[in-house]
Amino acid sequence: MAYLPPHVPVADYLTINDDIAIPRSELNLTFSRSPGPGGQNVNKVNSKATLRWEYQQSIYLPDGVKSRFGRLFAKRINDAGELVLSSSRHREQRRNVDDCLEKLRQLVLAALVVPKPRKPRKKSAAANAQRLKQKRQRSERKQNRRPPRIDD
C-alpha cells in the first residue's frame, strides 16, 4: 500500500518499505570530482554523488517519522533543512548514486522504528527498607569517625 500513483513508473520512486516510497523528483543529486579510487580518472570525471533532500516538505513521509528523522539525524541536516548525503566509494557515478539512495533508505527505515516507551518501575518495600538500613549504617560509620564533642 505504498503512496504510488498508478500512472508513474516504480523506477521514479525510492521504495523504503511496502507503505513508503519517496519520489526521485524530491531528491536533488549533484556530482563533483571524487577523492576516492580511480587513478588519473579521478581528475577528469565527476563521480562523487551528493544527495540533498528536504524531508520536511515531503508529503510521502508520515509526520511522526519526520519528527523522529529530524531528531535522529540532526547532524546530517544543514541550516536550510536539507538532509545531505554523499558517496565517493566507487569509481562509477551510477554506483555512487545507488549508494546514496541506499544510505537514505536505511536512514528512513531507522526513523520508522517507534521507540518503546520507558515504564518507571516501583521499588518493592523490602528494597526500600534495605536502602534506608544501608543509609543508616553509612551515617553511623561516618558519625563514629568524628572526634568526640566536648560540651561546655
Tag the structure with descriptive keywords.
152 residues; alpha+beta; three-stranded antiparallel beta sheet; two-stranded antiparallel ribbon; 3 helices; 34% helix
Could you write a compact summary of the structure shown?
With 152 residues, the chain is an alpha+beta fold. The protein has helices at residues 63-72, 93-112, 125-145, and strands spanning 13-15, 21-23, 27-32, 48-53, 83-87. It contains 3 helices and 5 strands, in the order E-E-E-E-H-E-H-H.
Reconstruct the topology from this structure:
Layout: E1 13-15, E2 21-23, E3 27-32, E4 48-53, H1 63-72, E5 83-87, H2 93-112, H3 125-145
Antiparallel strand pairs: 1-2, 3-4, 4-5
